[in-house]
Amino acid sequence: MVRTVQDALKDAADRLENSGASTPLLDAEVLLCEVLQIDRLYLYIQRGRSLTQEENDAFEAFLEKRIQGVPLQYIIHRQEFMGLDFYVEEGVLIPRPDTEILVETVLQWVNAEQAFKGHQDILKIVDLGTGSGAITVSLAKYIEKVQVYSVDLSEKALAIGQKNAQKHGVLEKINFLKGDLLHPLDEEDLFGKIDILVSNPPYIPAKDIEGLQIEVAKYEPRMALDGGPDGLDFYRRIVAQGDQLLRPGGRIALEVGHDQAEAVKNMMVAKNKYANINKHKDLAGIERVVTATVI
Ligand SMILES: C[S@@+](CC[C@H](N)C(=O)[O-])C[C@H]1O[C@@H](n2cnc3c(N)ncnc32)[C@H](O)[C@@H]1O
């Protein structure tokens, strides 16, 4: 059956809407653009053109996946983060725009403050739970003299992180380490030597995961989401050891769930090893990042 771009889009948007997709027309457009390898603007210029059988089949295959609830980013294998294009696939968390605040906080420190500006040596940054490498690769790209140590327990995440590092030409500025949170850093004898510790750890309370959108609950890796019974397990472990990993005066920056900032701040206060403990809000006024300096 020969269809025009316009007809294919209309049919796809209707089917996606019936499947419960929240942005059916946009999803259809993105998928068709991927098949045709064109920009969205050209989609409308070409709306009268007929799809070849091959294009139609490829579009149908993409559409079927999206109707099943597979996130768009896993179908087109792409997500933009900090102005960079990241490769993603099932098995690795899709980077979220919220996490850009965490990266921007670190970049502000590095660019504006005397403690980091004009740093003679190479700045040492640790990223715990690196996933696709979104945080790690952005920091390596935007900071000139830096070595990032990126830890993940997932073999697949590390492979994709490396792929993204290579894609953006920063592989040499990153050490990818497989293991459980701070363990590999201890093995590499990095305790006491790190300038900045950054992490977006799993923070969803285990019991809430099934109730998330199907795209997240069914297709994103549980290992990237599950923060234990109250969602705070990783913060307890990171706060407990972060002061030993960081040099005195080193900084910590943690992304937190929408209602977790106060609890994480309190952990830092109770530890008695952190000063300048601050909560940072996103554009919607939600506290998304907690930062502190090691005493
Ligand atoms: C919320 S995701 C963050 C991914 C990425 N940093 C981002 O912001 O898009 C958390 C990551 O932590 C990793 N992870 C889970 N448990 C871990 C552990 N015990 N040690 C190291 N990494 C772990 C997961 O595999 C996942 O990649």
From TrEMBL:
GO terms for molecular function: nucleic acid binding; peptide chain release factor N(5)-glutamine methyltransferase activity. The keyword S-adenosyl-L-methionine applies. It comes from the Bacteria. GO terms for biological process: methylation. Its EC number is 2.1.1.297. Residues 123-274 form the Methyltransferase domain. It catalyses: L-glutaminyl-[peptide chain release factor] + S-adenosyl-L-methionine = N(5)-methyl-L-glutaminyl-[peptide chain release factor] + S-adenosyl-L-homocysteine + H(+). Substrate binds at N200, P201, P202, Y203. The keyword Methyltransferase applies. S-adenosyl-L-methionine binds at G129, T130, G131, S132, G133, D152, N200. CDD domains: AdoMet_MTases. Keywords: Methyltransferase, S-adenosyl-L-methionine, Transferase. Residues 7-76 form the Release factor glutamine methyltransferase N-terminal domain. HAMAP family: RF_methyltr_PrmC (MF_02126). Methylates the class 1 translation termination release factors RF1/PrfA and RF2/PrfB on the glutamine residue of the universally conserved GGQ motif. Belongs to the protein N5-glutamine methyltransferase family. PrmC subfamily. This is Release factor glutamine methyltransferase.
